[in-house]
Amino acid sequence: MSTPRHTRQSTEDRVEDLLRSMTPRERLSLLHQYQAPVERLGVREFRTGTEALHGLAWLGEATVFPQALGLAASWDPGLLRRVGSATATELLAVRRRDPAAGRNVWAPVVNPLRDPRWGRNEEGYSEDPWLTGTLAAAYARGLAGDGPRPRTAPTIKHFLGYNNETDRCTTSSDLPPRVLREYELPAHLPALQEGAAVAVMPSYNLVNGRPAHLSPLINRVLRRAAPDRILVVSDAHAPANLFGLQGFHPDGPTAYAHALRAGLDSFTQDDDRPETTLSYLREALDRGLIGQEDVDEAARNILSVRFRLGEFDPEPEGDEVPEEVVNCPEHRALAREAATRSLTLLRNEGLLPLRAASRIAVIGQLGDTVLEDWYSGTLPYAVTAREGLAEHCEVEFVEGTDRITLETGTGRVVVGADGGLRVEEGTGPEQSGQPEAEEKTASFDLFDWGGGAHALRSAATGLHVDEAPGDTLACTAPGPGTWEVRQTFRLDELPDGRFHLVQVHTGRPVTADGDGTLRLGGQGTAFRVGGLGSGARAAAEAAARADVAVVVAGDHPMVNGRETEDRADLELPARQEEVLEAVHGANPDTVLVLSSGYPYAVTWADEHVPAIVWSAHGGQEYGRALADVLLGAAEPAGRLTQTWYRSVDDLPDPLDYDIITAGGTYLYFGGDPLYPFGHGLGYTPVEYGRAEVTVSGGRVTVEVPVTNTGDRTAEEVVQVYTRQTASRVRQPSRALRGFTRLRIAAGRTETASVSFDVERLAVWDTIGDRFVVEEAPREVLVGRSALDVVATAPLDVPGEPIPARDALTAWSADRYDDASGVRLCPVSPEPGPDVPEDAVSEDAVPGDAVRARASGAWVAYRDVDLGGGATELRLRANAPRAATVRLRLDDPVTGEVAGEAVIPASGGVYDFTDVRTPVRGASGRRDLYVVFEDEGTAVAELVLGGS
């Protein structure tokens, strides 16, 4: 009998040998997240999916490093690699006591941070795709290790076009070819190309109208990018969406068959219950929707990763990892280093660094707590901002929350110290004389986490108000948390100054029953809230007593901006802003410390507060790291990896993924940001010299001397950007090409050297469907950020002109240069559209269709060579009812109408018809606009014929 232990064979041969020994049913059983053992062949059970985003998660106590966004702020791939390595080590140690801790880890997240309102912003690295790819590859390499056998099997997620939580399973992200090739794919591919990541997870959303789990790019791009087979795992419960929420296919067998053929290998569905998934796949086999070869190919991909992990090999001697490495001293030191290097100085008018002898008032909801996020490990310990500073200074702490009471009438207040919340006769807040313990049972600390979400904590017990059995409320939660957050409430103000208390998760108001019990539902009781503003007053009093006030503000990772919930704005929570302004009014020497997984529009603070420091939630060593930076024991080393905007008005629609036409991210944003991409200050001044640029052997090298003119060692991140100043299409205002970190002693000069391939300057040519280094003038920009440019130099590299579009060769409609009011959609439910022979030329590449969202929508094709004159326009089009499409020259509104096509009503969304119409007055090289006169009309391909 064959066994999987023929270690002298290649991995491919061993996989084939094992596969031949397995029955069809055994092969099929591999296609679920929970893979059953095949004991007769020595195949153990296997589970995909261990969370390891910034340390080992969901498996008990483990070293908790800063959030991914914070790690990225270090601009230090080597640091991320070491954090990844430590995380892998702890996973291997935990496996000693918990074999279910699988070695297929679901990290890193490589979605570029296009929109800072995204609820999962904290999980990503950067809005720049190259920087995202570089950092993700480093973290994945740390997880996998450098040996011939990977220590873990990293999984990049989430493929593709995923930056919104609102309706995430039903919204479609439009990615025109340039956005796909120049922005999205460069973030996803490096970890695969380098062999650091060996698995991919598709995203919940649709892309160009097709579920991401069915994307043809999985097989056509991702698998071709990797040096070995890769494993494609679904996101949790996503397969059922294909015929459920998304309704893309009519039933489970059909949907699962298409997913398997599109490249999905492992179905993460129904938790540890594979029966339904396997029954759908068996029925798909019986109906001929898939063949055994499709099952076998997925099984090969799965087994290939398991063999490479060494699952079927004897464990090498000395490879045992003791459990004592979990949270060992070395990992604690690494957590402190990572937290320190992530701290970013946004503003400093000379207040920082602080004197160690200062009397400091630490103020704020986050001043004496360290919070875990959904993908965090369990903190083994936590050093808060207060504790970190108290190791060096005299500290007074004031939380700054309002101590409130909820009254329903004179002397009737809500109490909740011992059991459920209820209304009882008591003493109002303006009265006195009640015992302190009794007063606390009727008092709650009000936390404002932004977006209207508040949490109430009992002053008597320290526990938060939570939903209890029978729709009642009780003070039982340690804080907001769990997958469905039920511990937050809105305070909806009424005209008479009273408030309705409304649970955020369900939208149900809080109502006092006849017996005084508080329940969710009903008409809602009007509460008079006593004590509003008390937190700001107490904070101001503490600030006035101190030399310096440190206000620690920000978000709760489980509230208002987290998985399943986007933010609606960029504002600091109103009551936290109120505390900040009161503190600054009492003591101008105020430092704002922001701890958050995303940017804030702190415009008031930027105008008034002399020092602002930001970090993502920093893990267990956050407080010590913060103290090191505030007191000057460490230089601020962090730099922003995404733009901080002044207002939500600076942002495109959250669902507008076409950053080129929408002007998104630092690449295309033309406004004045609050803090630009790459921004971060230091404590000592540095000066840049003249930049020298050389081009040789397909590489560009930029060198610039940097001098530390201060009196302490400088940490400088020298950033190199390029700008193309002429092109046939819109180009980024600047694009990051590389960076280097310099540590420069006082009075010394170091030379920064950054190199990159000339190919990095290529743009996606929508005419030729290829990357091209365009013949065009360029310049190099060297700076401290994307906008703080301190040295420039011309950049002359060989390029080629992009020819005009040949009007006589058919092209896919989605290969436009500009558009307004359209969306992209599939031409066929199959990944490869069925294209009629006479609709396009043999060389045409099938793409997506362009469908009008409203009347007047248009797409533009620049620089089209019409030769001596086009006489006919041919379209493949679709319309829900008879519709008109006009061809205009040079302008979508006022341009000359060269042709008008009438599109007949179609039988369905995939029923595309060939339409021909005469064209007049179209010759030479012109810009063509296809203008949709009717909503819902779609065009898949077009071509113009000559006379």
From TrEMBL:
Keywords in alphabetical order: Hydrolase, Signal
Protein's UniProt name: Glycoside hydrolase family 3 C-terminal domain-containing protein
Q: Which InterPro entries match?
A: BXL (IPR044993), CBM6 (IPR005084), Cellulose-bd_IV (IPR006584), Fn3-like (IPR026891), Galactose-bd-like_sf (IPR008979), GH (IPR017853), Glyco_hydro_3_C (IPR002772), Glyco_hydro_3_C_sf (IPR036881)
Q: Does the keyword Metal-binding apply?
A: no
Give any GO molecular function from the UniProt entry.
hydrolase activity
Show where the CBM6 domain sits: 809-947
Gene3D superfamilies in the record, alphabetically? 2.60.120.380, Galactose-binding domain-like, Glycoside hydrolase family 3 C-terminal domain, Glycoside hydrolase, family 3, N-terminal domain, Immunoglobulins
Which superkingdom?
Bacteria
